TrEMBL record:
Protein function: Catalyzes the condensation of iminoaspartate with dihydroxyacetone phosphate to form quinolinate.
Domain of life, source organism: Bacteria
This protein's encoding gene: nadA
InterPro entries linked to this entry: NadA (IPR003473), NadA_sf (IPR036094), Quinolinate_synth_type2 (IPR023066)
Protein name: Quinolinate synthase
Cofactor, how bound (note): Binds 1 [4Fe-4S] cluster per subunit.
Cofactor(s) of this protein: [4Fe-4S] cluster
Binding sites annotated in the UniProt record for [4Fe-4S] cluster: 143, 228, 314
Compartments where found: Cytoplasm
Amino acid sequence: MTTATTKENLNKGEIRSAAERFGVLEMPSLDYTPEIAAETEHLYQRVAHHIPRIEWPAYAPYVAAINRIKKQRNAVILAHNYQTPEIFHCVADIVGDSLQLAREAARVDADIIVQCGVHFMAETSKLLSPEKTVLIPDMKAGCSLAESITGADVRLLRETYPGVPIVTYVNTSADVKAESDICCTSANAVQVVESFGVDRVLCIPDEFLAQNVAAQTSVKVLTWKGRCEVHERFTAGELLAYRAADPSVQIVAHPECPPEVVAVADFAGSTKGMIDYVRDNRPAKVMLVTECSMASNIAAEVPEVEFVKPCNLCPHMKRITLPKILDTLVNMSGEVFVDATMAVKARQAVERMINLKN
Ligand code: 13P
Ligand code: SF4
């Protein structure tokens, strides 16, 4: 199955004239020429399992253009593991889970970061690299967790639970991070919750992540009613039905899933943790209980592994497409800003997490 990425018709003429206006000297053709075919063949090999050869001419000119303009602008592309294969394998410089991307944003050597992910990820990059221009190809790429809570809600929680540390998932706005003591990701949530050495911690806003953390620690974990719209839809019943039909299938779930889903899984972890599990264990059949691009992105590396559905699409992650990335780089559009006062406090919460010893 391929995505609609290159079928969204961005006007090629408009992109070219914008490129000229902004002084991009070597705007390549967006036609599929023999030169473009040769230049992108090694990249096609990375996605050949996913994109039929007959469709590559629709992708290749964008891939070539993005990679050239990226160099001219001294830009790097950070892409989350949920990005589509043509972004993940053909134009991204750094890929990873939320924790890896945050760490890379803090140390990346470039003038511009193009964040292929959702808005809170771009904000986190801006917090950690305030001197860099951070661009997101679609400003509307949001997140149901980030939208579930505001800074005012966190202030109210602090009043209600005085002295209880507030651990905030990175899937939140800078406003929410600024009111928090420390951030966490799905990769380090248990470690962060335990880092305070107290018996009660607020872990917000994902109630399922908090419940899954609570199952792994003696710390009492208080939470909020936020949910990931992608992971909340999985049920233990459907997974058990798959396992009953084929007991050999390994079930690997993300901790944003309901606890009863995580309970029936063979392994639960961040998107990096899930990829590492498949890489290290090479199960004959595996079900990645998460966003659909995960299986597409790792499939080529582990050809002996069969990926079994179900998976769900994140509509926010899927807003990022090759034409939009090119448009962003050419026009320098979609710049992400964070209020300076808010940024100081929000940065502390993210840096405290990054600086925690492993
Ligand atoms: P991780 O990649 O950190 O596991 O996060 C998953 C997710 O839902 C990001 O939006
Ligand atoms: Fe948000 Fe869930 Fe989409 Fe991640 S997958 S961006 S948590 S809605």
